[in-house]
Amino acid sequence: MKYAVLVPDGMADKPLEQLGGKTPLEVAETPNMDDLVSRGRLVQVTTIPPDLEPASDVANLSILGYDPVAYYSGRAPLEAAHLGIDLKDGEIAFRTNLVTVSDGRMADYSAGHISSQEAAILIGALNAGLGSSTVTFFAGVSYRHLLLLKGIDVQALAVCRCTPPHDILGQKIDGHLPHGKGVGLLRDLMERSKAVLADHDINKVRVDLKENPANMIWLWGQGLKPRIPTFQERFGVTGAVISAVDLIKGMGKIMGLEVIDVPGATGYYDTNYDGKAQAGLEALKRRDFVFIHVEATDEAGHNGDLRMKITGIERFDKMIVGPFVERLKAGKDLRVMVLPDHATPIEMRRHIAQDVCGVMAGPGIAHNGFSVLTEAEAQKSPDHFKGHELMEAFLR
């Protein structure tokens, strides 16, 4: 048997007045996801355990079958794994966003979705200006980067409170700076980054082009070295992961999954949907399991971009789900599961801990009477799973 898990990040939403009380998923054209529901099992899933933040790392750990309460060690260590950074005892990693702050407010958590090429130069400047034997920055993709700290009290910093920048759009940053024991270093680096970035030629050009400058770093998502078993050890199957973001790639690497890079996979609206789907189908020729993650719907939610959220859902349905539905119809050796990791409502522009709708279909999975994939329909389903228990049900 082959298995495919397809994740439209942040697709779940809340009813919107401008959509007549419907969600983006309810108004989007999704014939392929609905086809899976009509032949399979509509489920409601709690991907965020109580007392944990509704973050993508927590939610995707759940979907992959790992209880975040037992295995979660922070977002940054997962991204570090993809960048080839082997965290050691006594070291801690922080997610480092390049952001735009204006008049003391978080104007843009992504500095206008700055290009990776521009960002790499800015990260180099930060290392030159702020780096030391204990402070090192690592360039990632677009606005998503890492800071590695060592030679300090990492245990205290591991439990300090850091706020995701996409949760405070439009808000004054002063009330959301890191707080807790030892955060003086973090606040100092964030403050000093302003001087390094303010007059950099890249930001001067961005301002001239009326693009948001990367004029500050924002530190969050910290964690220590993760210690989790591989996916094959847990479930006895080999697998691969396909995503544009370092978080998911790093998660896959730590779990022993093959990490597949797809040309044109950007983590934004313009990502290579077709390329991801075809790479997933190819991966199933040599692996038992493939996990395909698409970020575009989440970015639309954070941007409050209703048109692009609906468009992203429809593209995901046509170009990601569609090829797997065709493969499912053509043979008897494939199971497909589709679900978002969490909700990123258009009106709230941040992640929330809302149960999500999902579907499992394929040989051995009985139809439970539903015909469409929506948040409201899933609430009627008698099949309700804790996120980390879903994978076992899907595979077995």
Number of domains: 2
Q: Supply the helix-strand structural class.
A: alpha/beta
Q: Can you tell me the overall shape?
A: globular
Which ranges are low-confidence, i.e. pLDDT below 50, for 5 or more consecutive residues?
Answer: none
Order of helices and strands: EHHEHHHEEHEEHHHEHEHEHEHHEEHEH
Strand composition percent: 15-25%
Summary tags:
single chain; 396 residues; alpha/beta; Alkaline Phosphatase, subunit A; 2 domains; eight-stranded mixed β-sheet; five-stranded antiparallel β-sheet; 16 helices; 38% helix
Can you tell me about this structure?
The chain has 396 residues and is an alpha/beta fold. The protein folds into two domains: 240 residues, 3-Layer(aba) Sandwich (Alkaline Phosphatase, subunit A); 142 residues, no CATH class. 38% of the residues lie in helices and 20% in strands. The chain has an eight-stranded mixed beta sheet, with helices on both faces. Strands 3, 4, 5, 6 and 7 form a five-stranded antiparallel beta sheet that branches. Helix 3 packs parallel to helix 16, helix 5 packs across helix 11 and helix 6 crosses helix 8. The relative contact order is 0.24.
